[in-house]
């Protein structure tokens, strides 16, 4: 493999001629939350909206459970 003359860490195969520097920098600066879902679970979700909808449907159950748990510890 040839190494680029101006940067020893970059291989010749890397082509950034059509790239835009910092294209996602502002979005990343706002904050990111990346969660990797196992393939067997991911097959049931078509996009991030369906994942969020499923998780939101669990929130009332989680809140109920945490209230019961807090009462038991009190």
Short description:
The chain has three helices and no strands. It is mostly helical. It has a domain of 29 residues.
Tell me what you see in this structure:
The longest helix has 26 residues, at 48-73. The chain is 49% helix and 0% strand. With 74 residues, the chain is mainly alpha-helical. The protein has helices spanning 25-30, 39-42, 48-73. It contains three helices and no strands. It has a domain at 46-74.
Shape: elongated
**Helix/strand order, N-terminal first:** HHH
Largest sheet: none
Span between termini: 65 Å
Low-pLDDT parts are none
Radius of gyration: 22 Å
Per DSSP, the total helix count is: 3
Proportion of β residues? Answer: under 5%
SS content category: mainly alpha
Quaternary structure classification: single chain
Strand runs, count = 0
Indicate the percent of residues in helices.
40-55%
Task: Give descriptors for this structure.
74 residues; mainly alpha; elongated
What secondary-structure arrangement, pairings included, does this model have?
Elements: H1 25-30, H2 39-42, H3 48-73
